[in-house]
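Severity: low
Component: inverse-folding endpoint
Summary: output formatting inconsistent between runs
Steps to reproduce: submit the following structure tokens with default settings.
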């Protein structure tokens, strides 16, 4: 795989293209990666937001792999920070809970996503929802800002996950917590899948082992780490066949490799 900066630029380029796609186009690809590699009529990663209070269709690009705001124990008046906020989907769900006395801050590395989120917030008339351009491993946000941090299928896109979770720890208030949905692995991906840039942007080849993911969270200083939801993801054969030979695909299917969407809760002591 390329350097950290090269990976970031590749992810940024991919997600800038996604802003120009419809939700339906994103849903027909792997985690919104735009690979156009499956004829399934639903996203293989994302879950249904439409029944959650505060749902804004224009902000839903079907890029997530969970529903972190549903598990995040957000309260009225809280300050919520969304890491990798995209067009504002999770921010607007959170806004419906924190109300006018709370505050919502979205952070994203992609300028086009930030602009789309700002447009959506302006249409809604939200004065206490803001969106900042920046990297998750170097956040443009003050220490001890957030009561709650949420993130949806984004940490796996960050090459330096240790630094990203360290930054998350920094911005959360003492006694605050996060609820993050992400993709993790059980077993090792083949080199062909691990090194495929499209699958990195599609939330797969950037994922780490579940045990390592939880260890990184603990080493960042968090406590009371709980897996709130655990869901197995099956990648359709027509997606895998774009990156594997027939023999490699057969071996992959027989291997112990499994891909999971998990939602993890943790507290800052």
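Observed output (run 2 of 3):
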């Amino acid at each position: 795989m390329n350097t950290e900066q090269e990976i970031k630029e590749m992810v940024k380029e991919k997600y800038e293209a996604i802003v120009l796609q419809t939700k339906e186009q994103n849903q027909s690809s792997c985690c919104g990666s735009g690979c156009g590699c499956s004829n399934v009529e639903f996203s293989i990663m994302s879950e249904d937001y439409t029944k959650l209070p505060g749902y804004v269709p224009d902000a839903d690009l079907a890029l997530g792999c969970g529903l972190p705001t549903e598990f995040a124990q957000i309260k009225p008046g809280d300050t919520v920070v969304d890491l990798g906020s995209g067009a504002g989907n999770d921010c607007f769900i959170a806004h419906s809970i924190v109300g006018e006395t709370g505050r919502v801050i979205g952070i994203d590395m992609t300028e086009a996503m930030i602009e789309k989120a700002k447009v959506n917030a302006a249409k809604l008339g939200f004065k206490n929802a803001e969106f900042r351009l920046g990297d998750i491993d170097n956040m443009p946000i003050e220490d001890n800002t957030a009561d709650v941090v949420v993130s949806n299928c984004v940490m796996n896109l960050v090459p330096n996950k240790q630094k990203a979770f360290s930054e998350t720890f920094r911005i959360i208030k003492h006694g605050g917590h996060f609820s993050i949905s992400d993709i993790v692995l059980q077993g090792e991906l083949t080199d062909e899948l691990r090194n495929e840039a499209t699958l990195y942007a599609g939330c797969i080849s950037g994922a780490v082992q579940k045990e390592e993911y939880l260890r990184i969270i603990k080493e960042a200083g968090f406590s009371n780490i709980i897996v709130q939801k655990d869901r197995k993801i099956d990648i359709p054969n027509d997606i895998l066949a774009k990156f594997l030979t027939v023999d490699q695909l057969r071996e992959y299917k027989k291997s112990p490799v499994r891909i999971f969407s998990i939602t993890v809760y943790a507290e800052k002591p």
